Amino acid sequence: MSARAAPRILAAVVRLLLALLRVSKFNLGGRRLPEGAAKADLLRSIESAQPWLALGVILRVLGLEPAHCHAWRHASVACALDDRPSCPRTNPGQLTAAEVAALKGMVLAPKHRHMPVRTLALYAQRVGKVFASVTTWARLVREHGWRRPHHRLHPPKPTVGVRAT
Question: What residue segments make up the domains of the chain, in order of their start?
Fold first, then answer.
């Protein structure tokens, strides 16, 4: 490293760290960046530092995995960098946000409370609302904690048994 390159390398490292602080909103504990604008900003700072530092060094300074950087670069070319809704070009089998919302509406609807989840999934396919497997329905119900409405249709049972006098 020459004496002329040292200040430029240090300036590149400082720019990288400032970009990381800016996009993480000074919260370095949870380093997840769901916003696409933050990811794009970080990718731009990585690109600007690459003439002075190797990519491996840049990622080590930022604490970023190479797989994440590669996935973000791929996503920035294919479509948006936002985490949700997911890009249909990269994962075509994944349910869209609208399909998940329709699924939730059917699971929580009082008019479908008499149907088990399996029957409800097959019914949704038959009427053309959501085309997803029964296991996907069960997994989403379990993960999101959607409780099916169970309303008792009969009067409450007596708490005191039959008494003879």
Answer: 5-78, 97-144
